[in-house]
Design a protein that fits this description.
The complex is a heterotrimer. Chain A is an alpha/beta fold. Chain A has one domain: P-loop containing nucleotide triphosphate hydrolases (Rossmann fold, 3-Layer(aba) Sandwich). Chain A has eleven helices and ten strands. The longest helix of chain A is centred in the middle third of the chain and has 14 residues. Chain A is globular, with a radius of gyration of 19 Å. Chain B has one domain: Arp2/3 complex 21 kDa subunit ARPC3 (Orthogonal Bundle). Chain B is an all-alpha fold. Chain B starts with 9 loop residues before the first helix and ends with a helix. Chain C folds into two domains: 94 residues, no CATH class; 145 residues, no CATH class. Chain C has a two-stranded antiparallel ribbon with strand order 1-2. In chain C, helix 1 crosses helix 7 and helix 4 packs antiparallel against helix 5. Chain C is flat, with a radius of gyration of 24 Å. The termini of chain C are far apart. The chains are: A alpha/beta, B mainly alpha, C mainly alpha. At the A-C interface, helix 3, helix 4, helix 5 and helix 6 of A face helix 6, helix 7 and helix 8 of C.
């Protein structure tokens, strides 16, 4: 392989979920410090891929490596590796009701640090800090049920950012947000990812693609169908139509698999 | 069914907390072994479900409505141990935050509905369903009867707890301090409502949800079905029935729990009041072997006569011991459930056999 | 179908109302508990222990005036803590109606000395029956009021954390918290489900249709609960959850809390002693 160590290496991964193929012979590499978009319509496998990258689902066959370490159930059985990995990689779920399972906003944000056994004073300081940075300090004692969609999203983000992960995985971060919350969130992501962080965003929303990603992977039916920089992907109207990223309702192909002339650089 | 504060003496409440504790402990251990790290979210969500289902006020045939507790659904989908934890948590939240059921009575309510109810419902379900396929009508029937049996036995427990109060706890003038009705009133009063309304609601919900899951998500019925893909994992029918025996056994042993736990109060009462002729008269009057005064409202009188008749006639006069009376009542109720569930099981079995023969010939 | 009963304000509407009432009750309690007031400023552990001790004292008492005194104290505490009568009154009346209905036959059924003869009907009210009904009703009202004071002056998240002082295991406290959080979500889900159903309804449903609707709702909810529990588990795992839970206890006792604690304890002990 040589070269710099990759952040994630996905190698011929198959994953089945309840008798349905979610990922099929998927291979891709993600370098350290890049901002990546996983593009695909609903059911294309991008959420599944995020969960595979976060060590929540494990491939049925094939390999997933994080900085050279293979992600297997066996590896996560070791406390050392699990804590190290969870500290480094954070995932924001699409559904904030799933992500916000604690009684209050403060408890929510403190959950991760407490699981990683930070000292209590450190937990308090860091939680207060991140709440202020995301401008949600006023929500501190609120119960999640009472928050608006945009507020929920921010709390979900805070609950992950509080660990200051080097890698951030985002599942449809702007789904179901009003336009104002949408642009605030994008600003926040751009600002946060400005450093040497890696951000991997799964989305079907092409609006802010160039702001949030340097590189895109297009998924369809659990397979990688294209890879390239955002402007190149956005120009390829045929690809976007074929993968239901635009005008989804007009393009039904009866599930038939087509040959894709635009497949770039599949790592075989 | 949710016993409020004030109906049961603190001693009875404490005894029922004590009675519930070992079940909670065992259930927590078993469920933890089964679910590992999934315990917290699974239990929380299912408790939340149990809570919400208790809010449904189900329209019943005949124009009445009834609340289901969800005992049948919980026991059939989760198995007895997870069900008793989930229902206990839902009941605790109802008592603490919604004023539904007393705080001192949390132990009692959990014991009746969550613990005894789940064990009975699960045992009845397995006894009737046997190894019927997941999508069989037999499982729907089994779930319905399981819910009906579970809630009625739970109500019987509550009735017995109510019924022992006036015998044990009275003030200086002989007025009952807590629930004023002795067993021969408390039991029919509780049971009529539960046998005819609440039990029917529970029956519909249990059977209906199982039928719904058979269509939409049969996998959810697999873990408690006894029909596993690999035979090793399938528990033998005898083992599956253990919760039923456990539930019935505990029920019978713990029925006179008020006496056991309230030993001090009982003793005091005897010591201080037996010497006093007026008090003795009241005690005699409140004994449940004697019919209430003639001024009793007519309907209640008839009911209680029906209820006490078999005991009054067949219990030898020297069996004046209350403990024995309670045991007798408990065994009577338990016997009804057993006869009912095994009768239903036998009927279904013979029907199936007849069908098989018809198909075979 | 013709014989089945048709309800005007049927299952769907009444269930929506119940669900809505439950959600708004929690929300309103939360608002009051986070507001200003006498009890709001006191450490939740003190309130939990103190008020539970009162409920116990009320349960133990065999003197009516002691229970009534506890009720009076609880009511004044509620008013000083800005819990309005509009919250208390419905609780009182519903407890009175429910327990009252249960207590009335006891007036006649309890053996004892005659208080009132009703020769026309041939019924007899006894002193013991009156006392017994009074015990039951005052106890129910008192415990209900105290429990209400606790919930309406203390955010439920604080009540749960305070349960640690009652030696409730951490895991149960965490499960209770998560349960309450998802009760609100499932209540909302159920409400939306029935509301969307109602918007498509033409005319009234028969009792049988309503029952089917309710059962269908139950099935959808339990499937949803399972699915959510799996997702929540992943979300917990993603943030380092390994099966053990760790929580932050944030309470600290001030002088006022100690004073309140001793007052609570004295009153509970006094009531228990007087009510022997």
């Amino acid at each position: 392989m040589g070269g710099p160590l990759m952040l994630f290496e996905v190698d011929r991964v198959h994953y089945r979920y309840q008798q349905q193929t979610a990922l099929s012979d998927l291979s891709l590499n993600i370098a350290e410090g890049t901002r990546v978009a996983l593009l695909g319509a609903n059911g294309s496998g991008k959420s599944t891929l995020l969960r595979v990258l976060d060590g929540l689902y494990f491939a049925d066959s094939g390999q997933v490596r994080f900085r050279g370490d293979e992600l297997t159930e066996h590896m996560f059985a070791h406390d050392d590796f699990a804590y190290h990995f969870r500290r480094q990689v954070g995932l924001v779920f699409q559904n904030p009701d799933v992500q916000l399972f604690n009684p209050t906003v403060f408890d929510e944000v403190a959950f991760g640090p407490l699981q990683l056994r930070w000292s209590k004073s450190e937990v308090r300081d860091r939680v207060g800090d991140i709440l202020d940075r995301l401008r949600i300090g006023n929500l501190r004692d609120r119960i999640p049920h009472r928050l608006s969609g945009g507020e929920k999203k921010r709390v979900a983000l805070a609950s992950v950012l509080v660990l200051d992960p080097a890698v951030l995985l985002l599942d449809e971060p702007t789904a179901a947000l009003d336009p104002r919350s949408h642009s605030q969130l994008i600003d926040l992501l751009v600002e946060w990812g400005g450093g040497a962080k890696s951000v991997i965003t799964a989305t079907h929303d092409l609006r802010d693609l160039e702001d949030i990603a340097d590189r895109c992977f297009v998924l369809d039916a659990g397979q990688l169908v294209a890879e390239g920089p955002p402007n190149e992907i956005l120009r390829d109207a045929a690809l976007l139509q074929r993968t239901n990223l635009v005008h989804a309702h007009r393009h039904r192909h009866g599930g038939e698999i087509h040959s894709h002339p635009h497949v770039h650089g599949s790592e075989t | 069914m949710h016993i409020p504060d004030g109906y049961l003496s603190p001693a009875t409440c404490a005894a029922l907390y004590g009675g519930a504790a070992p079940f909670w402990y065992v259930a927590l251990r078993r469920v933890r072994t089964a679910l590992h790290t999934r315990l917290v979210p699974r239990l929380s969500l299912l408790a939340a479900f149990c809570f919400v289902i208790m809010m449904f006020n189900l329209p019943l045939p005949g124009g009445t409505t009834g609340h289901a507790v969800g005992i049948g659904v919980a026991a059939v989908v989760l198995g007895p141990w997870a069900a008793m934890l989930a229902i206990s948590i839902a009941l605790t939240i109802q008592a603490l935050f919604f004023g539904d059921g007393g705080i001192t009575a949390i132990g009692a309510n959990c014991f009746n509905m969550a613990i005894v109810g789940s064990l009975i419902a699960y045992g009845v379900y397995r006894a009737i369903a046997r190894r019927a396929p997941l999508n069989s009508a037999r499982r729907v029937v089994a779930a319905g009867i399981a819910g009906y049996a579970g809630i009625n036995i739970a109500a019987l427990c509550a009735a017995i707890e109510f019924g022992i109060q006036p015998a044990l706890y009275r003030d200086a003038a002989g007025a009952p301090l807590y629930c004023p009705y002795p067993l021969h009133i408390a039991i029919p009063a509780m049971m009529i409502g539960h046998l005819t309304v609440a039990g029917i609601a529970e029956l519909f919900v249990s059977a209906g949800v199982v039928a719904f899951l058979q269509q939409s998500d049969p996998a959810m019925l697999r873990s408690t079905s006894g029909v596993a893909e690999n035979l090793q994992a399938a528990s033998s029918p005898a083992k599956a029935l253990r919760p039923l025996w456990l539930g019935l056994g505990t029920l019978m042993i713990l029925t006179p729990i008020g006496i056991l736990a309230g030993g001090a109060a009982w003793g005091e009462w005897v010591a201080s009041d037996y010497a006093n002729p007026a008090a003795r008269q009241q005690i005699a009057a409140s004994s449940f072997h004697q019919l209430p005064p003639a001024q009793v409202p007519k309907g209640l009188e008839r009911l209680s006569a029906v209820w006490t008749a078999p005991f009054a006639q067949y219990a030898p006069p020297y069996i004046k011991s209350r403990a024995f009376g309670y045991l007798l009542c408990a065994m009577f109720g338990v016997g009804l459930v057993m006869v009912g569930s095994f009768g239903a099981g036998w009927l279904l079995r013979s029907q199936e056999r007849a069908r098989e023969q018809a198909a075979g010939s | 179908m013709s014989g089945s009963h048709v309800q005007r304000r049927g299952f769907v509407q009444s269930t929506i109302d119940t669900l809505y009432a439950a959600i708004s009750r929690v929300m309103y309690a939360e608002t009051l508990a986070r507001g200003e007031g006498l009890l709001q400023g006191i450490d939740p552990r003190v309130k939990l222990a103190g008020l539970l001790a009162w409920i116990l004292a009320a349960a133990l008492s065999s003197k009516l005036w002691v229970i009534a005194a506890l009720l009076a104290v609880a009511v004044s505490l509620a008013l000083f803590s800005r819990v309005p009568l509009s919250v208390l009154a419905p609780v009182w009346t519903s407890a009175l109606l429910f327990t009252g209905a249960i207590a009335i036959p006891a007036l006649f059924l309890t053996p004892g000395t005659t208080a009132l003869d009703m020769p026309n009907v041939g019924w007899r009210i006894t002193h013991q029956g009156l006392a017994s009904a009074a015990y039951l009703i005052t106890r129910v009202e008192t415990s209900g009021t105290i429990a209400l004071v606790l919930v309406f002056t203390t955010p439920w998240t604080h009540i749960l954390k305070s349960m640690r002082i009652l030696r409730v295991p951490v895991i149960i406290v965490v499960v209770l918290g998560m349960t309450l959080r998802y009760i609100l979500l499932l209540l909302e889900t159920a409400r939306e489900m029935f509301e969307s159903r109602k918007s498509r309804m033409v005319g009234t449903l028969t009792s049988r249709d309503q029952r089917r609707l309710a059962i269908h709702g139950g099935g959808v909810l339990i499937a949803k609960a399972f699915q959510l529990s799996g997702e929540v588990f992943l979300a917990m795992q993603a943030r380092g959850f390994r099966g053990e839970v760790y929580v932050l206890d944030e309470f600290s006792m001030t002088q006022r809390d100690w004073a309140a604690l001793s007052l609570f304890a004295m009153l509970a002990a006094g009531a228990a002693w007087a009510g022997r």
